[in-house]
Amino acid sequence: MAERTLRGARLGGQSFEDERGIEFAARQQVGYRCPQAHEFEITMSVEADIPAVWECPRCGAEALSTAGIQPEEKVEKPARTHWDMLLERRSETELEEILTERLELLRGGEIGPAHLHKPSRSKR
Questions:
Q1: Is 38 annotated as a binding residue?
Q2: pLDDT tens, 56-66?
Q3: Annotated binding residue at 82?
């Protein structure tokens, strides 16, 4: 046991274990090709879900699997506008009533910028 003692091991990736009796996980080579015609292979576990897209190590572009695996189409929701969110809270008739009330207040000078207000009659 004295010969297996670790003395002064330095930091880093040096391992003092041997590979006897170790059974490695089953692996497979998965091929990819990018739009620039760069072809490369990635080693993956047999049990792994194989991604349809991988980043090309040479140019950084998205490379597609040569095994014919197609990327999933992402369903994008349409962008919600302010009008859509407003209609979730109020009906169009309610909005028309509110608009009419606010326009009357604005025309009456009760709300809005100061330069639009009617001069108030001072009581003497």
A1: yes
A2: 999 999 999 99
A3: no
Q: Given the structure tokens 């509110």, which residue do they identify?
A: 98
- Enumerate residue ranges in the chain where pLDDT < 50: 124
The per-residue DSSP string of 68-111 comes to: -PPPPPP-PPPPPPHHHHHHHHS-HHHHHHHHHHHHHHHHTTSS
Burial of 53 (0-12, 13-18, 19+ CB in 10 A): middle
The 8-class DSSP code of residue 115 comes to G
Confirm whether residue 56 is marked as ligand binding: yes
Distance CA 70, CA 31 (A): 13
115 annotated binding-site participant: no
Determine the 3-state secondary structure of 116 from DSSP. Answer: helix
The DSSP string of 10-74 is: PSSS------TT--PPPEEEEEEE-TT--EEEEEEETTSPPPSEEE-TTT-PEEEETT-PPPPPP
d(CA 106, CA 100) in angstroms, rounded, equals 10
